[in-house]
Design brief:
Layout (H helix, E strand, L loop, with lengths): L25 H5 L5 H8 L13 H13 L5 H10 L1 H7 L11 H11 L4 H15 L6 E10 L7 E3 L6 H17 L27 E3 L6 E3 L9 E11 L5 E7 L5 H18 L5 E4 L6 H9 L3 E4 L8 H7 L5 H9 L2 H12 L10 H23 L4
Parallel strand pairs: 1-7, 7-8
Antiparallel strand pairs: 1-5, 2-3, 4-5, 5-6
Length: about 375
């Protein structure tokens, strides 16, 4: 017998948004870890004492955290989820009848308040401090770097403009006009002026000669041995403690080859000591960090470098690291340092680290800190610790 729809004509309901959130929902495990009152207190100096009331800053950040936890990195999609997902509403603190704000609220608040205030750094540091208070942070750490694609296309790269004399400028301009006259015949099927077909055959492009018009801070990045080829991107560095895989610090560097990873790691270690009072005793890393300058930097800071060795290099620093190869601590560090690659993979697969949404180095750093904050909240939820 075919069933019929049960039409509900009730006018009043006695229900809350929390009743619609499953017990095993990821947001339910993370929400008790976030102190909304502390976020509001941190953001209070960024607001004026007069004018119209703003959207509560804690709700803005709770919405961003919920979006990145669920792999939603688009502001418009986050607002869409707020309109139709009860779990999002409960996480952010909106009632069932409250209207979600416009998507432009995120971008306007970033531009006017949060990007230049260091707010995301403070929010990230709170997760690390909470883990340190609970004794979850080890003095043994690991470091690594990864390449993340920038929000820019190959077509956005143009030759770097160099100042030259008026005579050379006129000569190059006439030559360019002659080339346009000879190639004025349009290509078949190329009717899109906004995204025209471009033939890069025979044209050499490199970081020395070209820059992206969309994101001038990104560069052509490549691991060299990966076989994937170069693409527009940034270098993201991270330092992880080995016991529970909490991220101690992250940063974004303009790609400069291996130096962008080694220098970025030293910067994270110095910041962790200054801001968090954390200094590791040992640091595990792969062969890319087996460089004299980096090893000397660790020895100067009284940190034992448990770096994967290479047969190249005969300096005193290289010899000191090779002597530790058979030690029990070195073996453990080399075993644990691969876990940071799992965090990179988790961030890329689930939380938007595979390709940045934002552009320019300062803004990309803010997005990276938000992803790192989400990863640390997940770790806190896993070990069952409350802030």
């Amino acid at each position: 017998m075919i069933g019929t729809a049960d039409e509900d004509d009730m006018f009043l309901y006695n229900a809350s948004a929390e009743q619609f959130v499953p017990e095993d929902h990821p947001l339910r495990r993370i929400r008790p870890l976030i102190d909304a009152k502390k976020i509001r207190k941190m953001a209070r100096p960024l607001y004026s004492h007069t004018g119209r009331p703003s959207i509560p800053p804690e709700q803005l950040f709770l919405a961003l955290i919920a979006g990145y936890v669920m792999g939603i990195t688009s502001d418009r999609r986050i607002v869409m989820q707020l309109n139709c997902d009860m779990a999002f509403r409960w996480f952010v603190g909106l009632s069932m009848t409250s209207k979600a704000w416009d998507a432009s609220t995120f971008s306007q608040n970033r531009r006017r308040r949060f990007d230049q205030s260091g707010f995301m750094e403070k929010l990230f540091d709170e997760t690390v401090k909470s883990a340190m208070k609970q004794g979850l942070i080890s003095v043994h750490a690991s470091a690594d770097g990864t390449l993340v694609r920038a929000n820019a296309s190959f077509k956005s790269f143009a030759p770097i403009e160099i100042a030259h004399s008026p005579e050379d400028y006129k000569k190059n301009l006439r030559a360019h006009d002659n080339e346009e006259d000879s190639d004025s015949k349009p290509q078949q099927g190329d009717s899109d002026k906004g995204n025209p077909s471009i033939d890069f055959r025979g044209e050499k492009r490199s970081n020395k000669t070209h820059r992206s018009k969309t994101d001038p801070d990104c560069r052509f990045v490549s691991k060299g041995s990966s076989g994937t080829g170069a693409y527009p991107g940034y270098t993201v560095n991270a330092v992880m403690e080995n016991r529970n895989r909490f991220l101690i610090g992250v940063n974004v560097e303009i790609f400069r080859g291996p130096a962008s990873e080694t220098d970025g790691c030293i910067a994270i270690i110095d910041r962790a000591k200054k801001k968090l009072g954390y200094k590791p005793k040992t640091l595990g890393a792969d062969k890319g960090y087996f460089a004299e300058r980096f090893l000397n930097g660790l020895f100067t800071r009284a940190i034992e470098p448990h770096v994967a060795i290479k047969h190249q290099g005969k300096t005193t620093s290289h010899t000191r690291v090779r002597k530790r190869e058979r030690g029990h601590g070195y073996v453990l560090s080399q075993r644990n340092r691969k876990k940071i690659e799992e965090l990179f993979g988790e961030g890329k697969d689930n939380h938007g680290l595979r390709r940045f949404r934002r552009r320019f180095l300062d803004r990309v750093k803010q997005e990276t800190l938000l992803i790192a904050t989400v990863l640390n909240y997940k770790r806190l939820a896993t070990v069952g610790v409350n802030i």
